[in-house]
Specification:
transferase, Heat Shock Protein 90, single chain, 5-stranded antiparallel beta sheet, 2 domains, protein serine/threonine kinase activity, alpha+beta, about 375 residues, serine/threonine-protein kinase, Phosphatase 2c, domain 1, Ptase_RsbX, 8 helices
Amino acid sequence: MEAVLNHIEQAPDIARQRSFPIGEPSEIAAARRAGNELARRIGFDDVRTGQLAIIISEAATNIVKHAQRGEILLRKVLRGGTSGIEVLAIDNGPGMANVRQHMQDGHSTTGTYGVGLGAIRRLSQEFDLYTAPGKGTVLMTVVWGPNASSAIPAHPNWQIGAVCLPLASEQVCGDAWNVVCEGHELSLMVADGLGHGPLAARASECASALLEHATPGLPPLPAPFIELAHGALRATRGAALAVAHIDSARRQLRYAGVGNIAACAFDAQQRRHLLSHNGIVGSNLRKVQEFCYAWQPGMTLIMHSDGLHTRWDLERYPGLAQCHPSLVAAVLYRDFARGRDDITVVVLREHEEHRHAGAERNDTP
């Protein structure tokens, strides 16, 4: 287990975002500088770095002009061994009734030259948007590194989106999440380290690192993994932990959870809450029980820590369930964060080609 603990210090952090409040021009500049630093750190060339800077500037400027206040979230993403940067622009402003009109260069509702959304879409390799009158706007864009088109699949088997952020008073998030997939099998884990800060993060990161080492080449099953994690986390303060394993060939979802991780699997016909038992992995593990459910085509899985209220309902947001999972996670975070705890929201769906009202897509690197 010591090797797993050592791996924590070496593993790249691709699960957590950095958050930048946006309300005035100086805050736009801070978010843009952070994006430039992240781009250079993961090897973007000047062209890609410049494109990312324009995207962040335009997205943040739109927040200031139309919503007055909002937030930019940045994180590194990986696909097929290629690095990219995801930008989430989140606001609770008036929203848009006609997305296509706002995409047209020259259209503006504030007397300015409206090029923002059109430029963002053109410069992004992946783009999606959720907006509705009175429900604000959330924009997701991904810029991949140079020469990415030959290295990453245009349509991956799984779509995953997440928000993972610390309590406002903390620098380090005590939550973590990770995913391991191979062929038609996938295991998704969410951990909430006991308390806040670096010691909580060490517990959750230990579980995250263990997921990648538990069964090399094969996603681990939930109950055996939690038992294994219980031993590994004894050297930490412990964590709430839940694991979902999906076998899309067998159309099967297996789930086990200990502590305050909530999970829900749903489609257009039904919504099923997945059961976790009380306890702390690494400290007070009372019971591990694995449940098996049917996993149907088109289903979505949402897992989150107790930093998110459980009273959310996607039916309040027409069309959101068909958007990219990153947008689903961002809207839930925006509207249902408790504000007094670390927060993690992870949304997973098998990839489907789709279009929906209010969204524009550009998935070709």
